[in-house]
Amino acid sequence: MAYPLELGFQDATSPIMEELLHFHDHTLMIVFLISSLVLYIISLMLTTKLTHTSTMDAQEVETIWTILPAIILILIALPSLRILYMMDEINDPSLTVKTMGHQWYWSYEYTDYEDLNFDSYMIPTSELTPGDLRLLEVDNRVVLPMELPVRMLISSEDVLHSWAVPSLGLKTDAIPGRLNQATLTSTRPGLYYGQCSEICGSNHSFMPIVLELVPLKHFENWSSSML
Q1: Of 6, 125, 144, 207, which one's alpha carbon is 20 to 30 angstroms from that of 118?
Q2: What is the pLDDT of residues 37-49, one digit of tens each?
Q3: In this structure, are 106 and 203 located in the same domain?
Q4: Which residue range forms the structural domain that includes residue 57?
């Protein structure tokens, strides 16, 4: 999860988030090089009075500054499209969980089990124990198996919500009357925090998401105890 004064992204926990971080660094480097070139040209224009007349009217220069931006856009677009298709790809998920947004809590249903569902409310500040995170802890965590593809079906009962877990690279809108889906795969166990990322009313800030990723054996024991 995020830590105080953090300027970058949270540590990646899924292959998709790792790809997103690589793409961010790739694009940021292109932006940095373009900005440096533009600043260099501006500084030259401000510090010299020399004018090269053949350069001002050269067809070659116009060709270069037309083709070069197109190449740069292609270098950004191709990795972006690749990641978009990867995020939409769901191949034979091992588990499906349906989450519904409410004002102002989440409800979860494990559709592969006959009667495994619960509501997840934020724990009030007055009831936190030492070590708990304010505005992020919930009374019922979503327990999922690690290293397995999990499909999340996301919708809403009332207004627009958004189910987001940054370290997994997930952010999917919960829209009333519409069922959106996302896939997640965690490469390591742990607790992963998120929040509603769509302004949904006065208590928008008080509907956190907590995923507990555990080995498959522990998940089976947990699911057996919940049934």
Answers
A1: 125
A2: 999 988 988 888 7
A3: yes
A4: 15-88
